[in-house]
Design a protein that fits this description.
The protein is α+β, with helices and mostly antiparallel strands and 93 residues long. It has 3 helices and 2 strands; from the N terminus they run ααββα. Strands 1-2 form a two-stranded antiparallel sheet. The protein is globular, with a radius of gyration of 15 Å. The N and C termini lie far apart (42 Å). The C terminus is likely disordered.
């Protein structure tokens, strides 16, 4: 189980957050809905080797943007409105 901890990259058996089941934290119904959304979005394998769901616009491990997300730079930048809003992902009208 990976838990909900983001303090480290690998499971730590001594960490309380690593040992929390996401269903306990979010509630079973919310977790099931979010998990279904993630499965529907599909997986993406980042060039760094980390595989994650396409529910986020950048790799949680290395911050590299998904293809088609904010072409101004390769990695997610908190100061960039395009990255924060995810507007590069949307079709132009």
């Amino acid at each position: 189980m990976s838990g909900i901890c983001s303090a480290h990259r690998e499971y730590d058996p001594d960490c309380d957050l690593c040992n929390v089941d996401p269903r306990e934290f979010l509630g079973g119904e919310v977790y099931d809905r979010r998990h279904a959304e993630a499965l529907k979005a599909g997986l993406h394998k980042c060039p760094c080797g980390f595989e994650h769901y396409r529910t986020v616009s950048f790799c949680p491990l290395c911050s590299r943007n998904l293809p088609g997300v904010c072409p101004a730079h390769e990695k997610y930048k908190h100061s960039c409105l395009g990255c924060r809003r995810g507007v590069w992902d949307r079709p132009k009208v």
